[in-house]
Design brief:
It is a single chain. A six-stranded antiparallel beta sheet has the order 1-2-3-4-6-5. Strand 1 and strand 2 (41-46) form a beta hairpin. The chain folds into two domains: 3-117, Aspartate Aminotransferase, domain 1; 136-197, no CATH class. Helix content is 42%, strand content 16%. The mean pLDDT is 89. The chain has 198 residues and is of the alpha+beta class. This is YdhG-like domain-containing protein. InterPro entries: YdhG-like. Residues 18-113 form the YdhG-like domain.
């Protein structure tokens, strides 16, 4: 299905906030943003960069501003989209069509567009991976099996950490031993714990 079809279907779908999100769409279509469809929501972009999305849920509807952290938020309406997870995205929630202040919303949209044009985007800082301690049981098994030990050293830090957590996460000794028995051949083959699912 084409993205334009998905957008049209999203807005046409029977929903308690259908008329309300149609109003938000009318506002955003007055701007220079391009309409597309991403992550199951109509998303509006500038030169391929995400600026905002219009969303609807059971109890509210709203606008996600992808770099909303830079908005002045004069009305104090923006919330972090997912506290502790998202750094830049801000969410403006509405609970009824009467909550829509067209002038204010258009102001926020235009400010978001200007911020995007001026390169005001939050660059996500990736956390540096840290090596997890290798449990004694796994360390001892690797010391006895030179092939597995060499293969383990060649694994990415991510894969090494997965194996360490897999053994450390078992509560009972017999579970740790059965897990160890399962993973030693995988390690020797240079495979990650969850490679089959990737």
């Amino acid at each position: 299905m084409e993205k334009t079809e998905k957008v049209e279907r999203y807005y046409a779908e029977e929903h308690r906030f259908r008329d309300a999100i149609a109003q938000l769409r009318e506002l955003v279509l007055k701007t220079s943003l391009e309409e597309t469809y991403k992550w199951m929501f109509p998303t509006y972009t500038l030169k391929g960069k995400n600026v905002l999305s219009i969303c609807k849920f059971k109890k509210h509807f709203g606008i996600w501003f992808f770099n909303g952290v830079f908005l002045k938020d004069k009305k104090q309406v923006l919330e972090n989209a997912q506290e502790g997870k998202t750094q830049a995205m801000r969410h403006w929630k509405f609970y009824s069509i009467e909550d829509i202040d067209k002038k204010a919303i258009l102001g926020y949209m235009n400010e978001a567009i200007e911020n995007q044009k001026n390169g005001r985007v939050l660059v996500s800082l990736k956390k540096k991976a840290t090596k997890k301690p290798v449990p004694k049981l796994l360390k001892d098994a690797l010391a006895e099996n030179t092939n597995a030990a060499k293969a383990f050293k060649k694994l990415s830090l991510y894969n090494q950490n997965e194996y360490a957590e897999y053994i450390a996460g078992a509560k009972q000794e017999k579970t740790k031993l059965s897990r160890l028995e399962k993973i030693l051949p995988m390690i020797s083959d240079g495979k990650g714990l969850n490679d089959m699912y990737r």
